[in-house]
Amino acid sequence: MTRNCDPAREFATDLHAVLQALTDPARPVLSPGDVRQMFSPRRPTGLRTRRRLTPRPVTPDPVAMVEENVGVIWVIINRHFAALMRIVGEDEVFQQAYLGALEAAERFDASLGYKFTTFMGSCVWGKLQDLLKSHRRAHGRPACDTAATTTPGVFDPNILRKTLVDPRPPASQGIEDSERAAFVVDRLLALAASDRDRTILAEWCDGDGTPRRFCDVAESLGLPTSTVRKVIGRIRSQILEAGLNGELGPDIAEWCGSNGDSAEEN
């Protein structure tokens, strides 16, 4: 026989069993308050509430920042300091550039609104300029700054853009500019093979390192324009082959090339 399952009767039976257990003389007497406390939801007391911790700002690793942007270093070296790398050595140039990049990573402040690559490029440029100046002074050459001044703690956000677009020196540089012009003339005259070539070069440089047109030089000396063009072209080839365009300044090759073009037109 199957027993009929009546939920109401089963609940009444269970409740009766619970009441008998509560009224058992062997159990301690419970007050109504104790019963309410037993069946009321318990509230944790004395427990420490969980605090919501704010994440600490992560300090970027300077070495990792430089390694991620090491291509900027090689762009600056290859575009503007290739001659210095041939003279001093690739390891020395890259070491100084890497040191400047590390200093940039340690001093970089993102709150200023500048990109790290721009700031790092400026510091790398300054380090290599210092290396170039020290090399010039060690060999008795004028420390001519070709594009930037490297004052510690001062950053010009436009310096990298200026140097990548126009590496020529500014128009006014005071004493350094005059020293550099005299040095350019002396080095050019040292390349002359004869007194005639030296005279042509002196007239072409005009005494201050500024080139003149071939036709004007030929007219001043009473020589054919082809002779002047031949002498200047030979000196220009010697400058480029020896890498002296980096020693004399980045605008020497441009001077020779632009003057030659103007001579062809005239």
Q: Can you put this structure into words, describing what you see?
A:
The protein has 266 residues and is mainly alpha-helical. It folds into 2 domains: 62-167, no CATH class; 175-265, no CATH class. It is built from 14 helices and no strands. Helix 3 (62-68) packs across helix 6 and helix 12 runs antiparallel to helix 14 (252-265). The chain is rod-shaped. Residues 91-137 form the RNA polymerase sigma-70 region domain.
The assigned structural class equals: mainly alpha
Ranges where pLDDT stays below 50 over 5 or more residues in a row are 145-175, 257-266
Main sheet overview: none
- N-end to C-end Cα span: 128 Å
Count of domain modules: 2
Q: What's the average pLDDT?
A: 66
Number of helices: 14
Question: Which outline best applies?
Answer: rod-shaped
Total strands: the figure is: 0
How much beta, percentage-wise? under 5%
Which sequence of SSEs, written as H and E, runs from N to C? HHHHHHHHHHHHHH
Radius of gyration: 42 Å
**Helical proportion, percent range:** 55-70%
GO molecular function, one term: DNA-binding transcription factor activity
Pfam families: Sigma70_r2
InterPro entries: RNA_pol_sigma70_r2 (IPR007627), RNA_pol_sigma_r2 (IPR013325)
Organism: Limnoglobus roseus
